[in-house]
Amino acid sequence: MIKSELVQIIATRNPHLFLRDVENIVSAIFDEITDALADGNRVELRGFGAFSVKNRPARTGRNPRTGDSVEVEEKWVPFFKTGKELRERLNAGK
Amino acid sequence: MGGKTLTRADLAEAVYRKVGLSRTESAELVEAVLDEICEAIVRGETVKLSSFATFHVRDKNERIGRNPKTGEEVPILPRRVMTFKASNVLKSRILRTHQNSKDKAAK
Questions:
Q1: Which domains does chain B possess?
Q2: How many contacts, defined by CB atoms under 8 Å, are there between A and B?
Q3: Are B11 and A29 within 8 A, CB to CB?
Q4: Is the model's pLDDT at A81 over the cut of 80?
Q5: Across the interface, which of A32, A38, A87 has its CB nearest the CB of B94?
Q6: What is the mean pLDDT of chain A?
Q7: Are A48 and B6 in contact (CB under 8 A)?
Q8: What is the pTM of this model?
């Protein structure tokens, strides 16, 4: 499923909304999550999962091909932990 | 810089602010969007949200795990897990703002 298909499904279920509104709604949700992570906040959505940012300290890495050491800078990466309910639903009926 | 935890209510507030629906309807639509994504994932579909991230479902085989406290071997049953892969847009946005705020703090 891609974003436009998601928009289409929501629009079909909500015939009183314009497609444009639904596009804006979906964008508003993911822009808000993006902004929160950029500001160093977490986003916790019960039943779905939690988005957060993890810090990766600077380290000395190696080029696996040549074996040369390279300095890797400190990084911040987005992280997602699947919520309990979704994890259980993924494995229901097994 | 940060430290807050946002919830569904904050997402609903953002929809209310930007789209101009009622607060109740904004909250319902946030729920509907999350539900559709969950449904697709549970069906085993990959969900691609361009410039945000991709959610993927992976099948894990059975393997032998160990209880780290007792050292006891326990089989970990085959299961399905969801993986999250952030888009380059999201990754570089996070990297940029965190680097900027660190540079500011150093001054």
A1: 1-43 (4.10.520.10), 45-106 (4.10.520.10)
A2: 159
A3: yes
A4: yes
A5: A38
A6: 94
A7: no
A8: 0.90
